[in-house]
Specification:
Layout lengths: L1 E2 L3 E5 L7 E7 L14 H22 L3 E3 L13 E5 L4 H8 L4
Antiparallel strand pairs: 1-2, 2-3, 3-5, 4-5
Length: about 100
């Protein structure tokens, strides 16, 4: 999908949505709020890949969501972002979020 020297984006092996991509740093980073021994430059690189993947999903499907979990919500204790498209139609999306420019 997308890969740099320090970041990997791949399709989830057990997706919860029609499009479900995971973005991770290749080096261990505990979470967004606990970078462990990683430098903030790695976080910037991870977010750059999240942006790139989210833009690709948005361009293809008209919408995307990018999330990460923290604390008890974080099942895997390694920083990871989910970039998803939930599969709604444009009509369903607009009825929920409106017609904003």
């Amino acid at each position: 999908m997308v890969e740099t020297d320090r970041v990997l984006a791949f399709h989830h092996t057990n997706p919860s949505y029609p499009v479900h991509i995971v973005v991770i740093p290749k080096e261990h980073v505990p979470s967004l709020t606990d970078l462990g021994n990683a430098d903030e430059g790695l976080l910037i690189e991870v977010l750059s890949v999240v942006r790139e993947v989210a833009a690709m999903v948005e361009k293809e499907h008209g919408a995307s969501t990018a999330t990460t979990n923290l604390g008890l919500y974080q099942e895997s204790k390694h920083l990871h972002w989910h970039v998803i498209f939930r599969g709604e139609s444009e009509t369903e999306i607009r009825s929920t979020y409106g017609n904003h420019d």
